Amino acid sequence: MIEYLIYFPILIPLLTAIAIKSLWPIETTRKLILYIGPILTLACSIYIYDKFDQLNSNVDIINIFDNITISLGIEPISMVFSHHGQYSMACCYRILTWLHDFK
Amino acid sequence: MVNTLWLVATAYSLGYMISNNEKRLGNFFLFFSISISCANGAALSSNLITLFIFYEWLTISTYPLVTHKGDEQSKASGRKYLLILLGTSLCFFLPAIGYVYYLSGGLQFVDQGLLFTNLLPDQINHFEISILLILFVFGIAKAAIMPFHSWLPAAMVAPTPVSALLHAVAVVKVGVFSIIKILVYTFGVELIHGLNAVDLLVYVCGFTIIATSIIALKQDNLKRLLAYSTISQLSYVIIAILILTPSAIIAATMHLIAHAVSKITLFFAAGAIYTSTGFTKISEMNGIGKNLKVVTIAFTLGAMSLIGLPILVGFTSKWYIVQSAASESQWIILSVITISTLLNIGYFTPIIYKFFFNKSNANKKFKDLPLTINFAILSCCILMVILFLYPTLIIEVIKNVQ
């Protein structure tokens, strides 16, 4: 569970954004949300730093996509980078390989 | 840094947007929060592809902020913003990521540098590494190195809190931080030491620093002047990293933070002047120091910090950069910093003189500023002094990251 803490500084501003959009016209909640989001994110960042004694950089979005695609029974998205040519990264890889061989 | 300044920027934005009767506040704060999320994501990313994804999302999420006013000028600026930032990242940054994958078989950030640890000595081709380095540095146009800097002054059409967010909190800092991260964790400092490309980048950054400082001298619009000052200060950070010593990397990261706090103070002050008087041009700001004491003193402190005067955090970071450059006998970097400091004095002191010593227009009415604007400005001033008095607060964190 503790390793997922690192995602909180990303998720809290996103949740703040959703809350702002859905609750914006309500005057009393407006200021509350606007200030709670930054305070929670700041507190979370300080806690993470304090807990790990360093700012671990562990956010891996491909890993999350992999988990989602695997749970949906589809091939992990990271395979795109190494095996298939249909997406941009793989295309770039192919082009660079070709250029390298050509050189 | 991002999260601390987000809190202050939120307080300021609320006061500014309501005082200036800005419309679509919900949308403004929605994209403001999303862009902070993206900045955090880029800072905490563990590999190049995650960094790239958050980098691009940040560009897209800040586009509605740049075009917030919805007039033709802001739409044109928004188009330029997207074209340069997305264009460079897709043309240079993405192929560079692909090439790193091709060379090393991975994209993870590694302590000693992914390429340095994965490549055998006979696999290292200095020409390839040089090209890769140039692709990364120019592909990350958020760092605003010339010639990919023009999006930044163009984006000044946005409301001032957005300018503060772009220049101090999120966008440009993500750019420079990404370059630091890639140089240290993808290349590895030892791999790029002695490359000709490093010398070339030092010249380009040196030129950017001096050229944009000279352009800033001629500006009459305060926000545009601050934009050119930002471009110059960002190149300070990159030129400091390119000294390629551990102390220089600490100095660069420290200047990143010092510039963030100082520049956000300057933008907050510029926005407060606009809110109170409607002035955007420096030539109109004669004698406003008598009526806007807190704001103009804060502006003076921010300017002093960027010039590098003591009791403010800008002095500490500049001192560390100078020390690192001198210890490595980097005379070009030292000369650039000296000339640039003189130019900083050249474009900031006339403004301060106008604030306090020129005669004001007696008929001009000043609108009272909301409490949140004054609170945000004072908080930034206090932060500038605290970080000067306790630089270890920053240095310890940077050392732990390293």
Question: What would a concise description of this structure say?
Answer:
The complex is a heterodimer of chains A (103) and B (402). Chain A is mainly alpha-helical and 103 residues long. In chain A, 70% of the residues lie in helices and 0% in strands.
Structure notes:
The complex is a heterodimer of chains A (103) and B (402). Chain A folds into two domains: 1-59; 73-103, no CATH class. Chain A is built from five helices and no strands. Helix content of chain A is 70%, strand content 0%. In chain A, helix 1 packs antiparallel against helix 2. The mean pLDDT of chain A is 72. With 402 residues, chain B is mainly alpha-helical. Chain B has one domain (2-401). In chain B, helix 13 runs antiparallel to helix 17. The longest helix of chain B is centred in the first third of the chain and has 33 residues, at 72-104. The two termini of chain B are 17 Å apart. At the A-B interface, helix 1, helix 2 and helix 5 of A face helix 1, helix 2, helix 3, helix 4 and helix 18 of B.
Q: What structural class is derived from the secondary structure elements of chain A?
A: mainly alpha
Amount of helix of chain B: over 70%
Spatial shape of chain B: globular
The greatest inter-chain interface is formed by: A-B, 42 and 39 residues
Query: Helix and strand succession of chain A?
Result: HHHHH
How would you sum up the global shape of chain A? elongated
What does the average pLDDT of chain B come to?
A: 86
Please outline the helices and strands.
The complex is a heterodimer of chains A (103) and B (402).
Chain A: H1 8-23, H2 27-52, H3 61-71, H4 79-82, H5 88-102
Chain B: H1 2-19, H2 25-44, H3 48-66, H4 72-104, H5 114-118, H6 126-139, H7 151-154, H8 160-169, H9 171-187, H10 189-192, H11 196-217, H12 222-241, H13 246-277, H14 293-307, H15 313-327, H16 331-357, H17 371-389, H18 392-401
Helix pairs in contact in B: 1-2, 1-8, 1-13, 1-17, 2-3, 2-9, 3-4, 3-9, 4-6, 6-9, 6-11, 8-9, 8-13, 9-12, 9-13, 11-12, 11-16, 12-13, 12-16, 13-14, 13-15, 13-17, 13-18, 14-16, 14-17, 15-17
